[in-house]
Amino acid sequence: MRLVWYEFAKLFCRRSVLVLFVLFSVINLAKIYSEWDAYSFLADGSAERSWHTVYWQLYDQYQGPITPEKVQQLLATWQPLAQATADMTASTATDDANSLTGNLYSDRNLLEKYFVDPMQYCYEYGDRAASVAEKARQNAEAAAQAGALYQQRESAALYQIYAGRTVPDFAYTEMANYYLNYDFSLVLVLLLGLYGVAGTFVEERETQMDRLLLTNPNGGSRTVLAKLMAASGFLLLVTMWFSLLDLAGFGAAFGTLEGLDLPVYAIPSFAEAPVDLSVLQFAVLAAALRSVGLWALGMVWLAVSLRGRNALVPLVANFALTAVLVIGGASAAYSHFVWAKALDPYSLLAGRPLLAQTEFLDIGGFPVLSWQAALAISLVAGLVIAAAIYLLSPRNTYCPIRRLR
């Protein structure tokens, strides 16, 4: 274990890595704040009639369980505004004393975007899910009659996923939406992970220290095992840090963590998510998948650099390989080539291509969700590559103590 800690310190405590860690963290937080500032209509300040102020004043009236009383109250406020502005002849004054924000059009837009449309989506989602579940049940029965066993199993699995789904509560979801759809930190994770581990085996070959290590009892395969464990820990640290930083950054930028306890399918872009989890639980799952994806890719990086004798060559080769996987994964992200997504560790890194859609793979006649298949494939591939690196590494046969044994 001391050897593992020593190898981890060699990876993480390099000045260049620490500088990149801090620099990328600052860049990530700045990018998150720019998302809030550029895309949220609530980023208009704290004036008395700003959307930000008016929204949070109204929010307490409508948050929580969606009831007929709340729906009627909201419609009683919004419908007169919709009717008054329908023919575009209403006053455009910005200091209307009888309006919430000073302008009738602004009032209507605020209520539509942040209350009417989200509440309608949540209210109707149960019926939409029930319709999908019923269609799946009918398909399962038809497949059973036709003797199509796999189609029957797939339809039954689809029924189990969508049956009983509802969104009974209304909450602020804008922060959760941008948080779950945020991908910029993925680029930073890839760059930092690649830079951190690509030279793991190269540095000692450049100085010919690898030969000297073969004369030490802890050299050879034991050192390689320690390097594999240290690199795995480093990659896990990178993904966990930026996953936590994303959540903290969005919470700070948007000024709230509201909506994290809603079902993830309360976010429209995740209406077809195959998991019945809250937004926070979904984020934890996505972070775990990202960790596995980066770890599997890290094992590939280590394999490429295993025999390298110059730090630049493995770094360039791994960068090119990563670019190919990223381009391929991004191209297949929302296509029907489900196997292409499951076989590419980038899909686990991005998360959304697998977790935002309910897709199955036929494995041995059983329907397996694409994200589960991708997880299993990356784990197996990473373990096989790690085992190959360990088994193909030089043994410390020159160690006098080893020879005496």
From TrEMBL:
The keyword Transmembrane applies. Keywords: Membrane, Transmembrane, Transmembrane helix. The chain crosses the membrane at residues 12-33, 184-203, 224-244, 279-304, 316-339, 369-393. This is Uncharacterized protein.
